[in-house]
Amino acid sequence: MICKLATSIRHPQVSSDSELLILVDPLDQELGVLSKDACHDGDGVLHRAFSVFVFNEQGELLIQQRSQEKRLWPGFWTNSCCSHPLAGEPMSDAVARRVEQELGLQTSPEFVFKFEYQASFGDVGSEHELCHVYVTSGAHEPKVNANEIQAWRWIAIDELSSELERHPDVFTPWLKLEWPKLLEGRHV
Prior knowledge:
The chain is an alpha+beta fold. It is 21% helix and 36% strand. It has four helices and ten strands; from the N terminus they run E-E-E-H-E-E-E-E-H-E-E-E-H-H. Strands 1-10-5-6 form a four-stranded antiparallel beta sheet. The protein has a four-stranded mixed beta sheet with strand order 7-4-9-8, sandwiched between helices. A hairpin with a 5-residue loop joins strand 2 and strand 3 (30-35). The chain is globular, with a radius of gyration of 15 Å. The two termini are 20 Å apart.
């Protein structure tokens, strides 16, 4: 396993706990907005989110190790990019914005599916998201934002499946839910 550490170059801060996230019902109908911090308190408040899976020309997936500065699941391995659209921001704009901000990549992700999940990180807080999942391919080497990402690596599809089975405790809960659905739908 070859990991690349995020460089210590000064990167712009691209997220904050005060940014307003979009509250939704289980059918993805907007209900209002709430701060990111409040959305993640307690059991979490259902809000809109997205996950992006970026593949290179060899068919390997880019995975990242979340920054130790993250409130929820710091240091855990996860998919290429995950975040939230901001109040009033179309999902396609949010996905493009965050892939560029976190990975320095310009891609054209395609929507695959969406699902609701809730996961608690001890007494620190929870995710409760209606998550839109996207896939894109043909990516080059990323230029990762060290404020968001501690380390990253390309991984073969079968290798990720094996690692998820052998070491599930080092991966985020949303990745563990999304990956089997992507494989089942043959989106990877």
